[in-house]
């Protein structure tokens, strides 16, 4: 895989998880797409991360991620000078320490965590930070060709406890994964689950600005099982389960009917 393809893949993943924060330079993206198969060309890719209290410009230079770190600068911020310097130093350290691997997701996670940790006396700034925290609850829905592996299922159960995620796994063929929690923790789960080997795994639905969670824990959902290999669950019962949660429209999003 070329470094240009790595940049594009990382930005695409960032957009899928943080669409409201991410703004990619269209000319840079087009240039990268055009030169993606050319190992001698390593175009720059610029993007803007628009958070409630800071706007961060990120430049992925020609040598990123193998030998050059992402370059960072604030375009706008409502932070104090001390806070701005503290955050920029933290992000620069992440970028530098991540040579050889992508750092975009870690940078975004660090910014959101810093915003959530702020305790500022100004009412207007408090309101802004509160708004940033309010939109941090995320719910992701995945469609899988199948979910059989006990190891995968065990890992996802373990990660849900580690990352304070709620939701469920619908094992079988097809399979469904639903997780909900903080944006940063859902992002971490997304990275881990995509790193596993799948015949097909699609992020079908990404819900933001949630008022609360639908689920109280993370569990496996088992409905009536049928099929020659006893690997098909009753999707009619699954649809009813979603409708009882007042989210029946998700069934169509997942399966297309």
Structural notes for this entry:
This protein is an alpha+beta fold. Helix content is 43%, strand content 23%. It has nine helices and eleven strands. A hairpin with a 3-residue loop joins strand 2 and strand 3. Helix 3 (81-97) runs antiparallel to helix 4.
Entry summary:
By secondary structure, the protein is of the alpha+beta class. The protein has helices at residues 3-17, 26-34, 81-97, 104-117, 123-134, 150-162, 183-195, 235-244, 249-255; strands at residues 22-24, 45-50, 54-60, 71-77, 137-144, 166-170, 175-182, 201-207, 218-220, 225-226, 232-233.
Lateral arrangement of strands in the main beta sheet: 8-5-7-6-9
Sheet with the most strands, sense and barrel status = 5 strands, mixed
Mean pLDDT: 83
User: For the terminal residues, how far apart are their CA atoms?
Assistant: 36 Å
Percent of sequence in beta strands: 15-25%
- Please state the overall shape, judged from the principal axes of the Cα atoms: globular
How would you classify the quaternary structure?
A: single chain
């Amino acid at each position: 895989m070329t470094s240009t393809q790595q940049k594009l893949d990382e930005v695409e993943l960032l957009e899928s998880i943080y669409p409201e924060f991410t703004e990619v330079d269209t000319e840079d993206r087009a240039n990268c797409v055009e030169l993606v198969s050319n190992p001698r060309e390593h175009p720059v890719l610029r993007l803007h991360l628009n958070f409630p209290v800071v706007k961060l410009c990120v430049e992925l230079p020609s040598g990123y991620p193998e030998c050059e770190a992402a370059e960072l600068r604030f375009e706008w911020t409502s932070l104090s000078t001390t806070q701005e310097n503290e955050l920029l130093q933290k992000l620069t350290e992440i970028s530098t320490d991540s040579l050889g691997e992508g750092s975009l997701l870690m940078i975004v996670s660090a910014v959101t965590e810093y915003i959530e940790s702020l305790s500022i006396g100004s009412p207007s700034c408090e309101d802004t930070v509160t708004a940033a925290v309010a939109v941090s609850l995320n719910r992701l829905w995945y469609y899988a060709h199948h979910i059989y592996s006990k190891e995968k299922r065990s890992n996802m159960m373990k990660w849900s406890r580690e990352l304070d995620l709620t939701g469920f796994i619908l094992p079988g063929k097809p399979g469904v994964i639903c997780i909900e929690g903080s944006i940063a923790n859902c992002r971490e789960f997304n990275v881990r689950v995509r790193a596993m080997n799948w015949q097909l795994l699609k992020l079908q639905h990404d819900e933001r600005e949630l008022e609360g969670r639908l689920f109280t824990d993370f569990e496996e959902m088992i409905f009536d099982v049928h099929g020659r290999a006893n690997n098909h669950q009753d999707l009619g019962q699954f649809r009813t389960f979603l409708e009882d949660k007042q989210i029946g429209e998700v069934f169509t999003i997942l399966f297309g009917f």
